[in-house]
Amino acid sequence: MTAFLYPHETKTRRIIDISGVWKFKLDKNNEGRDNHWKDGLSDTTLMAVPASYNDISTEKAFRDHCGDVWYETDFYIAEEWQEKEVYVRFGSATHRAIVYVNGQEVVSHDGGYMPFAGKLNDVVKFGEKNTMVVVVNNELSRKTIPCGDIVTHANGTREVKPFFDFFNYAGIHRAVKLMALPKQRIDDINVLTDFDQSLGKVGYAVSALGAGDVSVELFDEAGKLVAAGEGSEGSLTIDNVKLWQPGNAYLYTLQVSLSEAGQLQDQYPVEVGVRTVKVEGTRFLINNEPFYFKGFGKHEDSHIHGRGYDAALNLRDMELLDWIGANSIRTSHYPYSEEFMQLADRKGLVVINETPAVGQFDVMMNFMAAGQGGESQSKFFERPEVQNEGMEAHKDAIRELFKRDKNHACVVMWSLSNEPDTSQEASDAYFKEVFAYARDLDPQNRPLTFVNFMLAPYGKCHAHQYADVICLNRYYGWYMMGGIEMDNAGEAFAKELAGWATENKPVVITEYGADTMAGIHKLPSVQWSEEYQCEYLDQQHYAFDSCPAVVGEQMWNFADFQTWEGIMRVDGNKKGAFTRDRQPKMSAHHLKRRWDKIDDFGYKA
Ligand code: BDP
């Protein structure tokens, strides 16, 4: 768990951020591992950490690199830290990394969106300069999560082909921190909240490394102590509880302490929003009230930074979500930064939290196939490598995501996969196992879902029976029934929804969208114009409003984002309501007018 508790400084924990500008080298000939680059790099250039490395250089070789890249930096560890356990912690490195300190491996990690930490005590020189080298690799296969492939071209160039519609940004994407932790320490904390009228309940379970007695104190936002308890498990009550509500967050702080013989060994705070989540029939209940999701599927994506953490961007996005009347997002198609999740808790933004399982459908330009429907050409889930190594990687991704994000009030549902090919019979056994695995992992037992695509419309999906909520990505009026046919798109969509409604589960439309170039205006409208995007939205909204089982609409996408280059994408996917630099298209104003009239309970004025 050492990596999974966020690196907060407390009375007992010291954190130093060593992000910045590091040395960098592309491994163009794939020779670094054999030639011991782990011991130190020569002929380096510079790279920002955190950031994707792809969009910083002017060379194509950087942007389109396939394979390893190497980073190096120097750091000191204070002599006073000798008494502590010292770690280096990465918020994420995409998609896998090995970290060496003074030539020795301290940690390796697979999976591009999760934190990991390596212990340094035995390899560092305290009080002196140490060197860290990190090799990061961006390759994808059918066995990795997310999925993709590598093709080798006639001239020997290797290319990563992602089975997904976003740029395969890579590098050290989140902050790198040194941590000095007490040897006897808090290792993990679970919280479970409930309420009965004005009485709030916070159940907790703490596990610790080493001996010690656990005690907890619960503070309100003003810093006033509202409850306290002893022991590693228990339940606290709060009089006149202030609930965590969508758009109106309230966060208590659970201060956990570990002491031995009256001496404090460790202390760690967890922010706690008191709220409940439940699915009942076709309703999605937050705090026992029906909730209506309004918002977007997003990406962590911006100019120059790529997928690198950007605090200013995240705040701007929160402002825009608030302005447009959104109350929710999906972390399509991978877990977002811990800092984003903290902001969502703070702002009352409801989150469908998605694993990086995307591209479980091995057709190039699969977004086209996915959007248009028809017969699947893919045999993805029949492949032994998918059923074995792929399944294991998927389970790892689920386990780590749940571990990292389980205590976030903002998380109301887990999405286990985006657009897997569930038109295949073999997907049934696969998802049966994946859902069964995930069921036992969340202490809060939140609803589980995956996102269904057009190749498995109502009546043809082999996995929805395992999901608590039906999530649908649909492009009626774009990939199908586009142009002059769009006038009938709403009716066609409504017809499919009527089928799903018979499942007696809530339905959330997790994607619907039309590519739109900001600034193109056409009367009458044509595809790609801002007018068309608005008319397209009207068709979709007509369908949603016709179906009482629909409890949410998350347009694709919040903002334009970068994709692989190709004949279907003009400098990226342009389905944003906002441009990539976060300015509104006409559709943003259009959505705002609708969402301002729909309250969080779905009541449409
Ligand atoms: C869906 C995918 C999403 C794509 C979108 C699109 O879930 O990642 O970007 O379609 O085509 O297939 O715009």
TrEMBL record:
<dbReference type="InterPro" id="IPR036156">
    <property type="entry name" value="Beta-gal/glucu_dom_sf"/>
</dbReference>
<dbReference type="InterPro" id="IPR013783">
    <property type="entry name" value="Ig-like_fold"/>
</dbReference>
<dbReference type="InterPro" id="IPR006103">
    <property type="entry name" value="Glyco_hydro_2_cat"/>
</dbReference>
<dbReference type="InterPro" id="IPR023232">
    <property type="entry name" value="Glyco_hydro_2_AS"/>
</dbReference>
<dbReference type="Pfam" id="PF02837">
    <property type="entry name" value="Glyco_hydro_2_N"/>
</dbReference>
<dbReference type="InterPro" id="IPR017853">
    <property type="entry name" value="GH"/>
</dbReference>
<dbReference type="InterPro" id="IPR006104">
    <property type="entry name" value="Glyco_hydro_2_N"/>
</dbReference>
<dbReference type="GO" id="GO:0004566">
    <property type="term" value="F:beta-glucuronidase activity"/>
</dbReference>
<dbReference type="Pfam" id="PF02836">
    <property type="entry name" value="Glyco_hydro_2_C"/>
</dbReference>
<keyword id="KW-0326">Glycosidase</keyword>
<feature type="domain" description="Glycoside hydrolase family 2 immunoglobulin-like beta-sandwich">
    <location>
        <begin position="185"/>
        <end position="275"/>
    </location>
</feature>
<feature type="domain" description="Glycosyl hydrolases family 2 sugar binding">
    <location>
        <begin position="18"/>
        <end position="182"/>
    </location>
</feature>
<keyword id="KW-0378">Hydrolase</keyword>
<dbReference type="InterPro" id="IPR006101">
    <property type="entry name" value="Glyco_hydro_2"/>
</dbReference>
<feature type="domain" description="Glycoside hydrolase family 2 catalytic">
    <location>
        <begin position="277"/>
        <end position="598"/>
    </location>
</feature>
<dbReference type="Pfam" id="PF00703">
    <property type="entry name" value="Glyco_hydro_2"/>
</dbReference>
<dbReference type="InterPro" id="IPR023230">
    <property type="entry name" value="Glyco_hydro_2_CS"/>
</dbReference>
<dbReference type="InterPro" id="IPR006102">
    <property type="entry name" value="Ig-like_GH2"/>
</dbReference>
<protein>
    <recommendedName>
        <fullName>Beta-glucuronidase</fullName>
        <ecNumber>3.2.1.31</ecNumber>
    </recommendedName>
</protein>
<comment type="similarity">
    <text>Belongs to the glycosyl hydrolase 2 family.</text>
</comment>
<dbReference type="InterPro" id="IPR008979">
    <property type="entry name" value="Galactose-bd-like_sf"/>
</dbReference>
